[in-house]
Amino acid sequence: MTAEILNIRSEEGMDDEVSERLRIDPAFALHRGGKMEIAATVPVRDRDDLSLAYTPGVAKVCTAIAEQPELADEFTWTSNVVAVVTDGTAVLGLGDIGPRASMPVMEGKAILFKQFGGVDAVPITLDTTDPDEIVDTVVRIAPSFGGINLEDISAPRCFEIENRLKDLLDIPVFHDDQHGTAVVTLAALRNAARLTNRSLGELRAVISGAGAAGVAIARILVEAGIGDVAVTDRKGVVHDGRTDLTDVKRELASFTNKGGLTGTLDEALDGADVFIGVSGGTVAEDAVASMAKGCMIFAMANPDPEIHPDVAHKYAAVVATGRSDFPNQINNVLAFPGIFAGALHVRASRITEGMKIAAAEALAAVVADELSADLVIPSPFDPRVAPAVREAVAAAARAEGVARR
Asked: What is the DSSP letter of 329?
């Protein structure tokens, strides 16, 4: 992108180096003015159009909705629009950068909803980190939306916020950092197991990271029938003998680690079939070498995987990362657009564990006949992905009794 196109002038007091970067960096060119706009779906060309789209015609629709509130799903956009809500405390790999700086990411999330799932989304960044205030704000704006996608809210507050909103609202509430990552991980692991002629029930997995993603991945793997899974944090394996556990980790200990491990991450990896990294840091090659033959390594930290693929490929049958420049990218965009599209299509009151597992199974099935070590999960640009996930989620919602149509 040329400087002439950008035409960004140096402002008084702006550092020359920063000004030059803004002037020539194509990322700033793409973001200039934001990445979204509001577009009408009906024409307003003349007085007749205006009288239907606005007054007096709109009054008929308002009156009908006042008498039958459920008509809002049919006669407003709310049935196909999601709020993407953050407080800016855990943004990508940037951490706590605040609500204003998080907006480019939330805009990006919103356009992914539209591009991959056909779902309209509105980015909302909140200038508070207090769980009570976040919950109260989201509840108050909820009538404008068909679903709530929580995004980049730090743990452990994210667990409380999601759980409270699920209890208070009758629309889908979904924390993508937890459940989107978990769905895609399960899908890839199902296919990796299939490729290596094993079932989930035969596998012992170790998860590095007991934050939002690690907890959700552990939960969905247990729900899906994994043989065993242990989760580690900075102090080692999360187990019920530790006295330093938060409430979230204490619950995590109650349904994981059937093998009773108590050591470090490196010790837990000895003989393990699966490594799942959602924490950052670096795993020593000696620990990787101690894993079971034909193991699977999903090192998903960005931009630096916990185990670099060059090292992982020495020992693993299947390697996945969170990066787009290596095969088998564990990318949430494979899950959340289709999950919300399916939930909104049937006007589901919530997103259940069964709906998430159905999404993972559908996602895995997309490439089930094409499996190779470098293809256990489809590309986000595979046109089969979102429709497959959408239909599976809608069917699961009906089967579980949370669909309203």
From this structure: B
The share of the chain scoring above pLDDT 70, in percent, equals 96
Active-site option among 35, 54, 249, 258: 54
Q: Quick one: pLDDT at residue 280?
A: 84
Residue 101: C-alpha distances to residues 17, 97, 195, 220 (Å): 20, 6, 42, 32
54 annotated active-site: yes
Helical packing angle, 336-345 and 176-195, nearest 10°:
110
CA 202 to chain centre: 27
pLDDT at 305: 96
CB atoms near residue 157 (< 10 Å): 17
DSSP track, 211-223: SHHHHHHHHHHHH
DSSP class per residue in 159-202: HHHHHHHHHH-SS-EEEHHHHHHHHHHHHHHHHHHHHTT--GGG
Residue where the block lists tokens 């207090």? 130
Separation between Cα atoms, residue 40 and residue 252, nearest integer Å: 46
Q: Which run of H or E residues covers position 230?
A: strand 228-233
Q: What is the DSSP string of 357-372?
A: HHHHHHHHHHTTTS-B
Q: Give the whole-angstrom CA distance, residue 95 versus residue 98.
A: 9
Looking at the predicted structure, is the pLDDT value of residue 208 above 80?
yes
What is the rounded average pLDDT of the residues 220-247? 96
Instruction: Tell me which residue of 8, 21, 160 sits closest to 87, measured CA to CA.
Output: 160
The torsion angles phi and psi of 148, rounded to 5 degrees, stand at -125, 120
pTM for the whole structure: 0.91
Instruction: Judge whether 315 counts as a catalytic residue.
Output: no
Taking the C-alpha atoms of residue 75 and residue 348, their distance in angstroms, rounded to an integer, is 17
* DSSP assignment string, 205-270: EEEE--SHHHHHHHHHHHHHT-SEEEEEETTEE--TT-SS--HHHHHHHHHS-TT---S-HHHHTT
Of the residues 35, 60, 109, 166, which is catalytic?
109
- Residue 347 gets the label, from left (phi > 0), alpha (psi -120 to 50) or beta, of left
Nearest alpha carbon to residue 219 among 264, 269, 266, 254: 254
Cβ count within 10 A of residue 57: 14
Order across the sheet with 228-233: list the strands. Answer: 236-237, 228-233, 204-208, 274-277, 295-299, 316-321
pLDDT at 100: 96
